[in-house]
Amino acid sequence: MSICSFDLAYLSFRVESRYNSCGRYEKLGDALIALPFKWSSPPSGFIKINTDTTIDGNRGSVGAGAVVRDQAGSVLFSLQKRVSLRR
Q: Residues 25-69: pLDDT tens digits?
């Protein structure tokens, strides 16, 4: 199994759940507006994986991406994937 093969619908759900629990958004009408925040590096000898997802209801698709960085902020690996939810 490849590190890149994962269920995007499940990943999207989990990331959205975690993001919403962080309280880093404001509601503006029916839209959620993300509040800016500064990236912080991991401790020396560790890596940090940042992820993001998007759901496009009009197109019926989900997108996800990830960036892996070291303590200096150098990108070690990144990936992105878009999947149609329509059959």
A: 565 566 666 666 778 899 999 999 999 888 887 888 889 999 999
Q: Where are the domains of the chain?
A: 9-84
64 and 85 Cβ atoms separated by less than 8 Å: no
| Nearest CA-CA partner of 42 in 76, 12, 6 | 76
CA pair distance 44, 37, nearest whole angstrom:
21
Q: How many CA atoms lie within 13 A of 18 on its CB side?
A: 10
3-state SS, residue 12: helix
CB 78 within 8 Å of CB 67: yes
Q: For the residues of 35-81, what is the DSSP string, one character each?
A: PP----PPPTT--EEEEEEEEETTTTEEEEEEEEE-TT--EEEEEEE
20 CA to centre of own chain: 12
